[in-house]
Amino acid sequence: MSKSSSDKNQIVFGYWAIRGLAEPVRLALHYTKTPFTDKLYVQGEGPEYSRQEWLSEKQNLGLDFPNLPYLFDGDFKITQSKAILYYLGRKFSLMGKNLNEEARVMMLCEEAHDLRSALSGVCYSPKGESKEERKKFVETTVSEYLQKLDNYFGKYNTKFAVGDAPTVADFQLYSYIDSALLLDDEQSLVDKYSNVKRFLKTINELPEIKDYIVKSHAQLPINNKVAKFGGQIIQNK
Amino acid sequence: MAESNADKNKTVLGYWAIRAIAEPIRLILHYTKTPFTNKTYEVGDGPQYSRDQWLSEKFKLGLDFPNLPYLIDGEFQMTQSRAILYYLGRKHNLMGTTPQEEALVMMLCEEAHDVRAKFRALCNKPNGGSGAEKKEFLETVLGVFFKQLDALLSKQNRKFAVSDQPTVADFLLYEYIDYCLSFDDEHKLLEQYPNVQRLLQQIQELPELKEYIATTHAQVPINIKSAKFGATVIKQK
Fold first, then answer.
1. What is the rounded average pLDDT of the residues B29-38?
2. Closest chain A residue to B99, measured at CA
3. Do B209 and B112 lie in a common domain?
4. Quick check: A6 pLDDT over 70?
5. What Gene3D superfamilies is this protein classified in (chain A) (predicted)?
6. Which one of A13, A18, A64, B92 has the minimum C-beta count within 10 Å?
7. Nearest residue on chain B to A95, alpha-carbon basis
8. Do the Cβ atoms of B65 and A152 come within 8 Å?
9. Domain range holding B127?
């Protein structure tokens, strides 16, 4: 099916030209082959790091709580990354098969979001410039999180995060773990957590999104330009 | 229907003996007249503020991601306050009646949570927030949120925030706004936002909740003992 302009205009997803908090939603849209406009706002260079590209539009988009990311679905407009993710999850049947699975999907998304918040806390502060602080973050926060997740995968033993079909939790977990692991200079931490490693590989190789993932990694930094770490593209091994 | 111990033991909500992020969940359980055990953990007195009462149980409850709050619902267990809120919301039909209403419910909960997080950051500062910082919060954070919320409520024009029936957003908004308003010594801020004021009154006067709210506000602090603001019950007008 060719993507007509009107198809792409039905869904508009707005965010900075980075992976940040948007990538899980982009993965869900690509996975479901949903035509959409990927509206990207570019932050200016230092030292000002101007947000003008966004600020000049912010109050004029008809958003109740103007913020990034935002989603337009026809006339319907919302903000808040998790509300958008769960809304699309519901729309595309990516929220698990029953109430309990759905609850687990959301619990995993919230846990992953906490990791991402901690990562942002490091990257956007002076700690982001310190190799020692980044190493400490990897060895404590990231490591503890991966241990819990590894135990979780060991316990439930399913192909995806919740059950044997993808849910939005897979995209959230993949994006945020992938981002956090960029702070691991030696790229060896994930080898200690075989279930997590296997999970990341499963998502990375999904035919619907593998090409998009490669492109995104090559073109979008994880953080905004103003960040002390991750504001530029980092080559992964 | 008399609440048997068996009924109460089926559903257990575990959290600190404070309102904070568990209270919206407690409001839902009371509103839906769900028998439950309100398991609370006490923090020790200063200067240690020992968390041993929780830590001694934390890894023995069968939780995948041990944390507070937790919900045990029969054989099912989960953590993460918003995941619990939306799970109970789905279970009890308190998430709106359409996908768009559900998305609005979640957007409101996420927005209110962001506002609350900024409030809490101030409460944890060494002086509990200076007069100037509190004023700035009221004007720039809470005031802006109220303005946006007031406009949304006016646009929605329903009995509650999202529809003519309560949703989990109403309970969370009520609790978190009440919490943030404890900074507003003059009780003037809300007068500028009549739709917000009306919503809070609607919730406070729900027959299912009136007495519970009056009791809990009189007896349970909003914040944890180690916080510099809100660690003891605040008398409200």
1. 97
2. A87
3. yes
4. no
5. 1.20.1050.130
6. B92
7. B87
8. yes
9. 99-219
Domain boundary among A61, A92, A123: A92
0.90 cut: is pTM over it? yes
- At residue B91, what is the residue type? K
Token digits for B11?
């559903």
A109 and chain B: CB distance < 8 Å anywhere? yes
Place of tokens 């720039």: B140
- Position with higher pLDDT, A38 vs B129: A38
Looking up residue A86, the CATH number of its domain turns out to be 1.20.1050.130
Nearest Cα neighbor of B86 from A102, A171, A89 is A102
Q: What are the pLDDT digits (tens) for B37-78?
A: 999 999 999 899 999 999 999 999 999 999 999 999 999 999
Which whole number is the average pLDDT over B205-219?
92
**Which CATH number covers residue A132?**
1.20.1050.10
Q: Starting at the earlier edge strand, list the strands of the sheet with A11-16.
A: A37-41, A11-16, A70-73, A76-79
| CA atoms of B220 and B24, how far apart (whole Å) | 14
A107 CB neighbours in chain B (<8 A) are 64-65, 78-80, 83
Per DSSP (E only), the strands in A60-165 are: 70-73, 76-79
Mean predicted confidence (pLDDT) in A201-220: 97
Chain-centre distance for alpha carbon B199: 15
Report which secondary-structure segment, H or E, holds A12.
strand A11-16
From the CA of B215, how many Å to the nearest CA of chain A? 30
Q: Point out the least confidently predicted range of A118-122, A207-211, B219-223.
A: B219-223
Residue B81: closest CA among B92, B90, B69: B69
Please check whether residue A145 is in contact with residue A115, taking contact to mean a CB–CB distance below 8 angstroms.
Answer: yes
Least Cα distance to A90 among B224, B50, B84, B103 occurs for B103
Tokens of B226: 């180690």
CB contact under 8 A, B65 and A107: yes
Residues of B in contact with A78 (CB under 8 A): 103-104, 107
> Chain B contact for A12, CB < 8 A?
no
> Which CATH number covers residue B175?
1.20.1050.10
Q: What is the pLDDT of residue A206?
A: 98
Report how far residue B196's alpha carbon sits from residue B127's, in angstroms, rounded to the nearest whole number: 30
Contact between chains at A103 and B103 (C-beta distance less than 8 A)? no
Structure tokens belonging to residue B156: 């929605």
Q: Six-digit token pair at A86?
A: 């769960």
Name the phi and psi angles at B126, rounded to 5. -50, -35
Total structural domains within chain B: 2
pLDDT tens readout for residues B15-28: 999 999 999 999 99
